[in-house]
Amino acid sequence: MSDMRLIVAGAGGRMGRALVRVISETKGAVLTGALEAPGSELLGKDAGVLAGLPANGVKLSADLWSLSADADGILDFTVPKATIANVAIAAERGLVHIIGTTGLSGSDDAVIKSVTSRAIVVKSGNMSLGVNLLAALVKRVAQSLDDGFDIEILEMHHRAKIDAPSGTALMLGEAAASGRGIALDQHAARGRDGITGARRTGDIGFASLRGGSVTGDHSVIFAGPMERIELTHRAEDRTMFAQGAVKAALWARAQKPGMYSMADVLGLSDF
């Protein structure tokens, strides 16, 4: 099979540049397009140079329709508005759409799901092997412990992150809720301030910290009457997310239309 031709959305950002570097190092993948927001001062810049590589001749553009004419997939770690704008074009062009964007709303998710009868989408709050294994472990532990063990999720990211809780924290919350057989949106405690009253039995709590240059730390705490179990993952470089996204694209190329997760890509769905 020929090399998979990939577009990087948000190619001028930190994650976009990491994706460009990983594609250049990955057998079977080639960068064919670099997308940036209209009006960006980076439009026209060489994607390779921005990523710290030799010039590769791929210039940043705001025109996904043109870029996608000769592409097989798009790697999309941007913002909800941009991702939703990309969904229709990616589906129309038949692109594999890898979505790592966080902060998507329920209505955004509905738009994405609406194209999966004809398009291949891999969507995950986190593309790393370690975090997806952590999610599988969280689900298993939640299945094994009753609600005498309170579940709290703590996450910390760099000061520039704009959404909270992180997509990864919510993914871990969904794993815990699935293990408990409950709906996360009915049991999530996403903010505590002032006189809140005692903790409700069965809640899944979230706490978000922001500061410095932290790539991403996540802990899931199961707190019982006389003991605690803590499961933790610490990300040291966003390159691992980029590697996971490219792996997902290469895997998805051979799949039927539908919505997939990194658990599917990594074979952890039945863990």
Characteristics:
elongated, 271 residues, single chain, 5-stranded mixed sheet, alpha/beta, 7-stranded parallel sheet
Question: How does this model look, in words?
Answer:
- With 271 residues, the protein is α/β, with parallel strands linked by helices.
- The protein has helices at residues 14-25, 47-50, 64-67, 80-93, 106-114, 129-144, 167-180, 184-187, 239-252, 262-266, and strands spanning 4-9, 29-35, 60-61, 73-76, 96-99, 120-123, 150-157, 188-189, 204-210, 216-223, 228-235, 258-260.
- It has a 7-stranded parallel sheet with strand order 3-2-1-4-5-6-12, sandwiched between helices. It has a 5-stranded mixed sheet with strand order 8-9-7-10-11.
- β2 (29-35), α2 and β3 (60-61) form a beta-alpha-beta unit.
- α1 packs across α9 and α6 (129-144) packs parallel to α7.
- The radius of gyration is 19 Å and the shape is elongated.
From the N-terminal CA to the C-terminal CA, the straight-line distance is 31 Å
Overall number of strands: 12
Low-confidence stretches: none
How much helix, percentage-wise, in residues?
25-40%
Give the mean pLDDT.
Answer: 95
> What's the helix count?
10
User: Biggest sheet: strands, sense, closure?
Assistant: 7 strands, parallel
Which series of helices and strands comes N to C?
EHEHEHEHEHEHEHHEEEEHEH
Principal-axis shape equals: elongated
